[in-house]
Fold this sequence. Notes:
Elements: H1 6-17, E1 20-23, H2 24-33, H3 50-65, E2 72-75, H4 81-90, E3 97-101, H5 104-118, H6 125-149, E4 152-156, H7 161-176
Parallel strand pairs: 1-2, 3-4
Helix pairs in contact: 1-7, 3-4, 5-6
Amino acid sequence: APGVGKGTQCSRLALDLGLTHISYGDLLRAQRADPSSKLAHPRPEDPVPDDQAVEIMKECIEGYRKTGVSCFLVDGFPRSAGMAELFENEVAAGLCMMRFHCSEETMLERVLRRAPVSGRLDDTEEKFHLRYERFVRLSGPIVSMFQKRGLLIDVDCQGDVDEIYKEVRRIAQGWMH
Length: 177
């Protein structure tokens, strides 16, 4: 969900545990800004087809693998059950998911607080509500898929960022061992 804190927590976790952090949202924004991009839907409000989304992630991960990187922390991906299945079949198996959640009001407050420094065109109240509505509408099937597999852990991101991080780190270390 937009503004829930996934970028903040994942960036910190990647540094702390020596993982490579990939933000799917950042990859999409870069693709949309690149005139030579294969991305068929340049508008942020248009969903990216599963096959194109997986291709974007695959190219990014393969680029890192060529440099010897083998462990990734990906935020904001996959965004659909079909995307997850395609990714597992074509790129890498063994996905686990942390679902960060907090109140819609807290997410909006965070988005508006970061807006002056983020440089993101979608960090407005109007765009937040559109993004949040889309997230709520689309996330159910993928959450259900990971719950059924026993690979979903919910993380309450309502409180203090440092306290949230302690929980996120504990979960990640459990998955890594």
